[in-house]
Design goal:
single chain, 133 residues, mainly alpha, 89% helix, 0% strand, transmembrane, membrane, II family cellulose-binding protein
Length: 133
């Protein structure tokens, strides 16, 4: 294992963390919009959206924690290679990869949940449309 092996993950993890941050920003905007428009009118759809958004925020927090942990372990692995503690560096790098995989699994689950939010919204639109038909 050389110093470049863990260094290869740095750009990937950085971009992943940026994507997670963007998802978080979009969710906070959705939550603020939902709050401002529905303070007095809590329909079943709005309550469903709130529950969905709460779960997604929790998942994004976990995704970010796993991604940052992966990044830190990757940096530690590089340091261990630098000071020539190769067996420990390999173990730490493997742990970094594991944290990255867990982060990606959380991301996949969050994406699946986000489609449920769209289904809730579509259901509400269909119910309103049927009322006017």
């Amino acid at each position: 294992m050389t110093l470049t092996t863990p260094a290869l993950l740095f750009p990937a993890i950085s971009l992943l963390l940026l994507a997670y941050t963007n998802r978080f920003i979009v969710l906070t905007q959705l939550i603020r919009h939902l709050h401002s428009q529905n303070q007095e009118n809590l329909t079943d759809a709005v309550i469903g959206q709130i529950a969905n958004l709460r779960t997604r925020v929790t998942l994004i927090r976990r995704m970010q924690a796993m991604g940052v942990s992966s990044f830190l372990l990757c940096a530690l692995s590089m340091f261990l290679v630098f000071i020539e503690v190769i067996p420990l560096a390999q173990y730490v790098f493997g742990l970094s990869l594991l944290f990255l995989v867990v982060s990606l699994l959380f991301s996949l689950y969050e994406i699946m949940i986000s489609t449920r939010a769209i289904e809730i919204e579509l259901g509400e639109i269909e119910r309103n449309w049927k009322k006017f038909r």
